[in-house]
């Protein structure tokens, strides 16, 4: 009798352990979940001028602003500087717009990196799946590049992607229609220097950015996931503030449907 009770107890224990293991594995395999505790979206304070890609105020919003954007994120770790860039922005109390390539989200490290950036309140945009030049693509290939990255980003962050930046600033005849279809806004930039060989160190990049003739209210500043950008960023942010600029929060930029509602 005691032996039967002992065997029954062992069987019950094994069943419990098997069930716990399956539950743990199921939790590990779950996709990223959308944060349902997000605060209700406030009315936008800015919009992107479709002719110049500059940031324009809505109503009485401060016009003396610039937008910080970062392309080609997150490059494969450990070489990616996107997490460091996001940390510098957080330390300065400002937000950025990060344009992701879907190919960098194919591994877990890339997905975790972009999720961490989004969780800090930064906005994630679309920079195509493979950093393709749209001039070389058909309409269907362009759709695939955009849709694949939207699905990759949205699968990680749980948030719809509203902003698109074409690699190399190149567009094609299909882009306007695709932006309308996907409910997105395409934007290029006002200026950016970190891809130029002469400015691929922190000191030179900082100086050129802060002294650029194109630095003016509404500037849409292009940067990339590079080491020298990450090293220069704290000084760039402080220099912009010293010149009286506010770093606009991309969460406050109107989405396409909001621009329509505002007649923009």
Automatic annotation (TrEMBL):
Q: Which PROSITE patterns does this entry report, sorted A to Z? A: NODB
Read off the Pfam families from this record: Polysacc_deac_1
The region annotated as signal peptide is 1-26
Q: Which domain of life is it from?
A: Bacteria
Q: What is this protein called?
A: NodB homology domain-containing protein
Gene Ontology CC: one annotated term: membrane
Q: Which GO terms describe its biological process?
A: carbohydrate metabolic process
The UniProt keyword set, sorted, is: Hydrolase, Metal-binding, Signal
């Amino acid at each position: 009798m005691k032996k039967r009770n002992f065997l029954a107890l062992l069987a019950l224990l094994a069943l419990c352990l098997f069930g716990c293991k399956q539950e743990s594995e199921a939790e590990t395999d779950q996709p990223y979940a959308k944060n349902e505790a997000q605060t209700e979206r406030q009315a936008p304070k800015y919009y992107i001028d479709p002719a110049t890609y500059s940031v324009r105020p809505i109503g009485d919003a401060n016009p003396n602003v610039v937008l910080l954007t970062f392309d080609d994120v997150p490059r494969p770790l450990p070489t990616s500087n996107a997490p460091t860039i996001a940390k510098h922005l957080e330390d300065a109390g400002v937000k950025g717009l990060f344009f992701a390539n879907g190919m960098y989200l194919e591994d877990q490290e890339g997905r975790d990196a972009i999720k961490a950036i989004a969780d800090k309140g930064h906005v994630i945009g679309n920079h195509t799946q493979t950093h393709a030049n749209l001039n070389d693509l058909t309409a269907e290939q362009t759709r695939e590049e955009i849709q694949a990255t939207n699905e990759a980003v949205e699968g990680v962050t749980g948030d719809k992607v509203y902003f698109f930046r074409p690699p190399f600033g190149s567009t094609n005849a299909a882009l306007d229609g695709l932006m309308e279809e996907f409910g997105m806004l395409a934007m290029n930039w006002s200026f950016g220097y970190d891809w130029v060989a002469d400015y691929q160190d922190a000191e030179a990049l900082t100086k050129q950015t802060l002294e650029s003739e194109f630095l003016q209210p509404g500037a849409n500043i292009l940067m990339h996931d590079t080491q020298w950008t990450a090293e220069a960023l704290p000084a760039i942010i402080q220099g912009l503030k010293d010149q009286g600029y506010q770093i606009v929060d991309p969460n406050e930029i109107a989405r396409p449907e909001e621009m329509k509602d505002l007649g923009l």
